[in-house]
Amino acid sequence: MNESDEQLHLHARIFRTADEWYADIDDGLFPQPDNPLWCGSYASQRAAIDAACTRIAAMRRRQPAVREDQAG
User: Fold this and answer.
1) How, if at all, do strands 38-42 and 20-27 pair?
2) In DSSP terms, which residues pair with 66 in a beta bridge?
């Protein structure tokens, strides 16, 4: 959980078509396969996994923090 006690529910997919690897991230609770939160294409599976992990970490860091004295 983040500092505001909100959980992120993200789903990352890594898949291959022909000779290219793809990664996308979607809301795990309300997935929209045709409109993911983020996507990219990569030359290798490892690069796709690394990119998805980096993006998830960035999304986590952007979650708003709520101080205890501001919590409702």
Assistant:
1) antiparallel
2) none
- Half-sphere exposure of 31 toward its Cβ, with a 13 Å CA cutoff? 9
Distance CA 36, CA 53 (A): 15
Three-state SS for 60? Answer: helix
pLDDT more than 70, % of the chain: 78
Tell me which residue of 33, 41, 43, 37 sits closest to 56, measured CA to CA: 37
pTM score, whole prediction: 0.71
User: Can you name the residues that pair with 25 across neighbouring β-strands?
Assistant: 12, 38
Neighbours of 18 (CB within 10 A): 4
Could you tell me which residues are beta bridge partners of residue 47? none
Cα(32)–Cα(51) distance, integer angstroms? 20
